[in-house]
Queue: 4 jobs
Job 1
Amino acid sequence: MSKVYVNGAYSTKFGELWERDLRSLAVEAAVEAVKDSGLTMKDIDSIVVGNMLASRFAGQDHVGALIASELGISVPASHSEAACASGGTAFRQGWMEILSGQAENVLVVGVEKMNDIGTDEVTTGLSGASDEEWEASVGVTFPSLYAMIAREHMRKYKTTSKDLSLIALKNHMHGSMNPKAQFPKEITLDMAQSAIMVADPLNLMDCSPITDGASAIVLSNKKKKKSIEVLSVAQAQDTLALHDREDITTIGSTVKAANKAFEMAKVQREEIGLIELHDCFTIAELVALEDLGFAKKGEGVKLVRNGDTYYDAKLPVNTSGGLKACGHPVGATGIKQIVEVYDQMNERVGARQVKDLKYALTHNVGGSGATAVVSIFKNLNNA
Amino acid sequence: MSKVYVNGAYSTKFGELWERDLRSLAVEAAVEAVKDSGLTMKDIDSIVVGNMLASRFAGQDHVGALIASELGISVPASHSEAACASGGTAFRQGWMEILSGQAENVLVVGVEKMNDIGTDEVTTGLSGASDEEWEASVGVTFPSLYAMIAREHMRKYKTTSKDLSLIALKNHMHGSMNPKAQFPKEITLDMAQSAIMVADPLNLMDCSPITDGASAIVLSNKKKKKSIEVLSVAQAQDTLALHDREDITTIGSTVKAANKAFEMAKVQREEIGLIELHDCFTIAELVALEDLGFAKKGEGVKLVRNGDTYYDAKLPVNTSGGLKACGHPVGATGIKQIVEVYDQMNERVGARQVKDLKYALTHNVGGSGATAVVSIFKNLNNA
């Protein structure tokens, strides 16, 4: 089996980008990632685009063809959609294009444009990630789904609202060092605890913001100077509807994908020096730390309370600022996580630099966990 | 490189299925295709779903997760979208899952539910396959895009409206022998020529009908009794907007994908005994015959006028009835074409059986040709 490397990476600014459209964001990310890889657009054999909602928000389907057309190339261009895991599934397809021998250099682009339409419409659009007939159609929204998960986690494991606020605090502290972040500023515990309620017990500071942005990476079968190696990519599913699960404090797809990713990579959890995980809500970061196997179920709060997940502590989590502070353009998020890993391993992130980074893990989730993609990367300079 | 086989195939009835929803159609096709392959759902390592418009028409994104959840399995489930080529790109991903060593048995499902909403909304939804900012937003619809192609083809090559009607006649004659077809009945030349105009020169009988339906196939790396072999799958792109092309009587993605598919398969055009091609409009069948290399540009009409493309003639085209008579549930179409090839090669299609079939080709198009997927299959009994 041939090896797969990330050889270039780039993210646009995330935020309310009123003067930009979907295609200009995707093109900026694509062109800059290809430039970063040292290749030219002619070297690209295949394109995979991760995007969830251009169909509903912009009336534009066929976004793989759109991006290829804008870039002026005619290589196979695909569109992968798995709600907020669209970046992750696009990455997995790009990885398989190389493993299957169908491509040597693959451009993977994640993009979403979410600020151009009304808040109600965005909420309705995002609810398409849930089970429409059993959840969305009766009024369930994503804050309410994750609020149910939080309530049950609090009941079973004595997790508190303050624990969740500590996660927001940490991610905003990280985000304050990331100029690409939507909200590059710190918050205080008082601000986090007194924010307006969205879906009890989740308040505004427990929720990641939707936004505009694009991220792109170049995957290759050839090692170059800045290469990092993709050791594993594992995807798994859980039930689409939350009510079909035995225990809603655990996300089965994350557990299964993580176990498979570690097995494939032949790496131990203790070796991971950076995690970029899917904190669409603060509770999601806590649940993910446990489901990924970095804490026993119910004990993830210890890492949070100890401050272990800060960029300069023993298990850095979401140094980009996470979905919470960096922002969550849903199709881009899974690729942005890989951009952060690449930039960290190439020691070009400035103040938030993680020291002596050998292995990193990314974790991208669709909906309330029906899809999870977990990947492990190796720093070829340090590992 | 490991070989890839189609080991099971099934299509639901295509038509106005008022009492069925998206998930029940997908599940019927999936369950029956797996049964046909001799496997059980537990043997499936991966699922890829082709679908274009569930997001807009049913408020349901994340359809890969939906179908896996409905089938009760947690293997990687992806959603591939490329407008009307969504089935084709899903098939290509499934093929790469096997080639990359990530799966031994892949279930590929194409599904679309289009009759539940208003005609205007369907037309608007389908226009998402074009360039929204440059085409759809100014009122361009798909009949009008293909009407422009037809007008120019008529101007350059003296193609007539009657030539187009002959294509509809042939596809309806084939469809009359396919009980799964939406319109399993013959039409007369007079009916075809006197149908109401949709977008001059294309009348109602030049347009394929949108519809409800699902098709599924099982891909495997192991040869079984009913196996047919996938010799090649090739995808290419053309510009998204029609006005960016030098010559609108040719679709560059089809030309490029066909050349690559023949090269990869090491098969000559003369060896092809069945073509299932993308006749979203009658003119599209004519243009495709030329772009696929079965006639020189402008000379495809000879095949049509000679009756060479009937199921019992020298180059059978669209024995399923094509999109015209079998119906066009857009995400399912690319898979339905492969179901037809599989059923033909296993000699289980009844009256429309092609004799001594050795090699077959499928051709699935997205939009006005921004995406094309061309695949070649081998009959392991006859070839």
Note: The first helix of chain B runs from residue 22 to 37.
Job 2
Amino acid sequence: MGATSTKIGVVDDNGKVLDRAAVPTKGQTNINKFIDSIYDAAKKICAPHGGISSMEGIGVGAPNGNFYTGDIVNAANLPWKNQTVHFADLMSKKFNLRCLVTNDANTAAIGEMEYGAARGMNDFIMVTLGTGVGGGVVCGGKMVYGHDGFAGELGHLIVNRQDGRACGCGRKGCLETYCSATGVARSAKELLDTSKDKSLLRNLTTELTSKDVFDAAMQGDALAQKVFAFTGEILGEALADFIAFTSPEAIVLFGGLCEAGDLLMKPVKESMEKNVLSLWRGKVKLLRSQLPQSDAAIMGAASLIRNASRQ
Amino acid sequence: MGATSTKIGVVDDNGKVLDRAAVPTKGQTNINKFIDSIYDAAKKICAPHGGISSMEGIGVGAPNGNFYTGDIVNAANLPWKNQTVHFADLMSKKFNLRCLVTNDANTAAIGEMEYGAARGMNDFIMVTLGTGVGGGVVCGGKMVYGHDGFAGELGHLIVNRQDGRACGCGRKGCLETYCSATGVARSAKELLDTSKDKSLLRNLTTELTSKDVFDAAMQGDALAQKVFAFTGEILGEALADFIAFTSPEAIVLFGGLCEAGDLLMKPVKESMEKNVLSLWRGKVKLLRSQLPQSDAAIMGAASLIRNASRQ
């Protein structure tokens, strides 16, 4: 479930997405009507596969989704922003199926464990680098939900206490103010403002995005390359701290920013190795998601059901 | 097991320490002779309780103890400092009992979960404030050992990346350079050197310790009080980050520095609440260990066996 639309898929036991649909999320202030529209779309794509009643369950990845309660709680970018929506409950009644909910970083982690880069791993950390930065922590083969279901807010660990950037959460210096797509654009703007270096980014006529920074870097733009080096350095420092916390076998990176490939991965890896406690130097894998990007969200959500039925 | 001596105890099912003994650790370069001396001491204190063969197992808390392998690995302050000692294996053979090993912060955490402040909790974080700073992370009722058995090195998360203090680990700015007993003494020395403020600590004829800082603070010494406020602020900032990681029900503090009571706990609590993501503000308990200090190490080690037999 995203702010704009909600993707729906029929997924088989092997994680293959058999059919897809989407309904708008934006403007759906009436939650029951929203669920009706999901039901109608799901019914169509389930029909060739035995119908809704033959499905094992419904997995949902939603912003601020709580695994324990099945609620979506105060999600700033959804139509019910200051409310608690009993989403799993409502879905479960409508579909007569088990419904499990968690946030999208957690579904990404479970998806990776079931079908992707973390197959066979008991201990790993997922970091999603999108508009914001999300985290999913797996320890001993289990997703860490914490006491209240909201564990893994890795984008809100503080990486700069001295003069950190203002974050949407109201605090300063959060990881996501630097290492998200938005953070990359912010770094580029700062560098353009505080230096007189030439850059292709000075010619833009639209609002600068991380994609612009990537494109410029790939064309050899030194300032844009510097932005990725800076982003990678900060992310690597943070990952080194994450390692000391739960000692994962691997850290898996996922999300739009990973499309930058080596431009990002190389400085991240260097910084992580430079900053990690010697005990772990050269021992923790840094991986990119292995789920096909177009289906990753759906596979991740579906894996919630597969994972739960195995525990 | 400490650098100076190894404490041994007979512990019943309720965590009561029935009998105690100790053997020196220092100078025991021959591991087999060391284990013989532990055996002889244990035999004596087990005799009134049915003898060694009637014990359920042996729990060991040792620096750099690895739960998965039972080894003690490169422990800088033990006589086998650059070696891997197969401690659990050797003990198990000698005693003909199951032997489990982990580091002392983890035994402290399990002890607290079985007998202390964290009874009934599934998600909490233990932070030990001694000569160094150690961590034990419990998620979903299970100790987090991580991929290699060394998870929870919370004393080595970086709290100052700008001009952090040199740490024994070779890096700079680790939490334990500020919030350990050693860190407190270091802060006091820095403040004495960089200010001209009057302080009882200027009259010391011996090497300044955290205990001196505590005593002076209790006598109203403003500089010493400032040291605890500074220590608490840094620790609170770090705990706020820990909360975002695993969303614990409580953080339990343990170790010598906690003896400072409110002098430390008050600024820690204030700083933690001020710095934590609003989602958790006012919701995570900050507790002190509830194990009797003299027996805490032995109870913690014994709880390894009790905890394992329950899983």
Note: DSSP finds nine helices and eleven strands in chain B.
Job 3
Amino acid sequence: MTRKSRLIATAALGALCLAGAAVAQSAVDAAVKARKAHMQLYAFNLGVLGGMAKGEIEYDAERAGQAAGNIAALASLSQAGYWPEGSAQGEAEGSRALPALWTNGDDVMAKGAAFRDAVTALAAAAGTDLASLRGAMGPVGQACGSCHESYRAPE
Amino acid sequence: MTRKSRLIATAALGALCLAGAAVAQSAVDAAVKARKAHMQLYAFNLGVLGGMAKGEIEYDAERAGQAAGNIAALASLSQAGYWPEGSAQGEAEGSRALPALWTNGDDVMAKGAAFRDAVTALAAAAGTDLASLRGAMGPVGQACGSCHESYRAPE
């Protein structure tokens, strides 16, 4: 191999690695954006229900049932793709996910299951009446908070 | 009413109107963000399936089925809250929704139904094999494009 061909081969390998890293980074960025979008949709629907619970939005059984049904349907989506390695805070732009999220698998799964239970109960209650909606909101807020406190860095 | 009390009343009314407008604007902004988040989740899941269809991501029946199932579940969410009056392009920041979206109700509903049919078929096909996935992607792309061409302004 001549010096020139070595240089070309090295440059080509470098370009390939950079391209590979860019693809990997773009996949990580897409995952971070997707999980934020998912949380945004929880927030949008919870905003409607919270507004009704606080009396800022008039209670409407159909609308409440739809918002709570949306949350339960979102919670049932397959979300494994949201959390690739390399997407913790400091590794991926805009990420506030703490590294413990990737090491405390059992606790993360348990918190996820508690959240799904709470939103399933919310979906069953929200369209009944305002008191039922209010009663089902607390456990959902606790489930959200429980995971955020353990696995999301403060802003 | 003295001149001073009239001034105070006018100022208070002005503040109230501004506050009301701010609340309304923030509801519109929340709706625009939510519909963009919803589209983002379609894109994330379609990115996985498109990558497999093009051979850039290795076909994995389980992962394909989950991504397509996610899209079908998202399509079944209640989305009425995404499109409040005052959220067309030029009315709400970041909106590219054309005003015709609010006036062509029958066509919008028909396009929505065609999209749901296409993603239901995709969800049934994606986990079977790569050829089935590829075959079901075309109608989904057409359904996306059909609505975007009619109701979304170019960037």
Note: The first helix of chain A runs from residue 3 to 53.
Job 4
Amino acid sequence: MVGQSGGPTSAINATLAGVIDGAIESGEYEHVYGAVNGIEGLLSKRIVELEKTFNSDEMIKSLVRTPAMYLGSCRYKLPSLDVSSEQYERVFNIFEEYSITDFFYIGGNDSMDTAMKLSAYARKIGYDIHIIGVPKTIDNDLFGTDHTPGFGSAAKFAATSMREIVYDSMIYNKKSVTIVEIMGRNAGWLTAATALARMDGLRAPHLVYLPEVPFDKDKFIDSINELFKTQRNIIVAVSEGVKDTNGNYLDHENLNEDEFGNVLHSGTGKVLEQLVLCKIGCKVRSVELNVLQRCAMHIASKTDLDESFNVGKAAVNAALAGNSDVMMCLKRVRGGDVYKCAVEYENIESVANFEKTVPLEWISESGDDIKQPLYDYIKPLIQGEVTVSYDDGLPSYLDVSHLL
Amino acid sequence: MVGQSGGPTSAINATLAGVIDGAIESGEYEHVYGAVNGIEGLLSKRIVELEKTFNSDEMIKSLVRTPAMYLGSCRYKLPSLDVSSEQYERVFNIFEEYSITDFFYIGGNDSMDTAMKLSAYARKIGYDIHIIGVPKTIDNDLFGTDHTPGFGSAAKFAATSMREIVYDSMIYNKKSVTIVEIMGRNAGWLTAATALARMDGLRAPHLVYLPEVPFDKDKFIDSINELFKTQRNIIVAVSEGVKDTNGNYLDHENLNEDEFGNVLHSGTGKVLEQLVLCKIGCKVRSVELNVLQRCAMHIASKTDLDESFNVGKAAVNAALAGNSDVMMCLKRVRGGDVYKCAVEYENIESVANFEKTVPLEWISESGDDIKQPLYDYIKPLIQGEVTVSYDDGLPSYLDVSHLL
């Protein structure tokens, strides 16, 4: 059985495709079940038989190239086992009913927490099952893996969009500031990726602000004024999650929380837009890349989709080799000129619930740019283009009306 | 001489490429000059020699596939000739100095106004020059042409993004409203294009609001509540320019104006987001497609780029045939199963300064959807994909550092 959880990425269906393909290819399984809407749907027995739908290379390939989550998702937190065991019992009764031997949970930090809790319960009741966490997130904030499946495609979209926005912003012979707000709660990986949009002779974005460094509003205005001495059109990349020097989110007057207590941002770019308007008074615009960062399949990274598929397949092999309580991970092969990543796994307890942020030594001392090692880290992950199918002028994706 | 003006589109450089290619191919010109930053730059003699840079098919092709405006733009309004003739004299002195015989001005409504004023002045002083307006705008709001170069690419981006946002919005088993705000001051063509994202079995966007119809907030909330009886995730497409039943923009408390007195919007989606939150209280998100609508070359329409190039070439032929005071236009060939458009021209005075909005008979009686003829009108314009070159994982566009 396989499920998806957390926020979407352009690559999470590639991982699902890898799990299905690996499972069918192994010949070791009678059925490959999908839990619709993750653990939440599993509790209501919303289960589909995947081996029937994905019985051809063509269908597997279509799944790889369909954005968001074919099985749907949830943001559902299992209660601590000390508080209540009722839901655990229900999950394992369903596992038993369907003769589930292996459970693959594709998701981010919160999903790894769920996988870990299920593993602990299985050990407690002596239920023989292999539980494998399979990482994904555009945020790239998981420990134990060189990077997360899904990050490369989001990075490619963000850097491509940034380059196009730079072209758009340069056309008027008039001072302007364009602020591009990028996703990333506490980790600035995706914001950093927009720096790859720079070209010879065109060093935009000029300022790049990650949440790892406190954001100083006065210094920001000073930097813009300084840049205006040599530039006409200034481009700023800013993470939604930057905090001011008092530790408050810039948009702290306008925040909501999701069910995991994660803070939902809106408006960091707008706050800075108003600040520039008040303090400098020039033309200013803010652009929020928004959800397209996690679903713009039409500009996905081939490297990312290939790796995501391989991680899914390797997860099946890891389960068949008798592993459990592990999270699959990518290990970059050091040395050599060519980028290479191997798929391995780590004990899930050692990686779940920790956030991997950008190392401070990869951020410039001025706090408004990234350093070369961070470029070099991201660059291989956005390589290669994906040919999606087009039908009547629009990308043709798999029907997901079973989620309705 | 050729210049670009107004807002960017993904296709305006294709038209510029068409003009350059047509001019060189004709063998009738000694030089092909470009006015940098349109009429405003021309007044300061910011002139480049284009035939030197674009001396190969490869360079012409690269220009076609570079977004925004290679020559830069302006939003500059020539004073009425009654008020002052100083700037007109300056322009024509420069025309004389450079022996300009033909002037091509690529732009939208405001640019056609400029072309018309220059034509009138030329006639007045008896200066022999052919002045040709060449249309472009993502808004598709120009009279005299079946559609505008640039609209098809913007429509393809908007519909593609809409489809991907629909996939993104469906993953949670939880009621939600997603509001997508699309550009378009007074004309809803681009917002209408997002309806093409619908698929068999997936009728999202569910509600489509164009500025041609007054927006009733109470009816909007009623429609969402009604849809929630049969749908879980509701997608709304709304034009930035919708007005309430009192004739006020929804975001009328937060408006700016540009130099032409055009109203600059921000926040129609945010206003509706707050409204849904207050009145319904479900999960709600607004997404502003923002400037990517006019610069996302990586998902441009091949039909649009081809037509835009052809319009530029035809403009040169029109000038060489002795025409002046005309705007180039596309005429859809009626009858037959296959879409076909011819390039013709119209007297510029008969088309400039009029806005072409969506005919009310192409909008549903309920005011929240489009009718079949509008689908049929837009569909051919988004056909065909463009292969941009990629370098190190990102689209490779022509160097525009001359605009710095």
Note: Chain B has a mean pLDDT of 94.
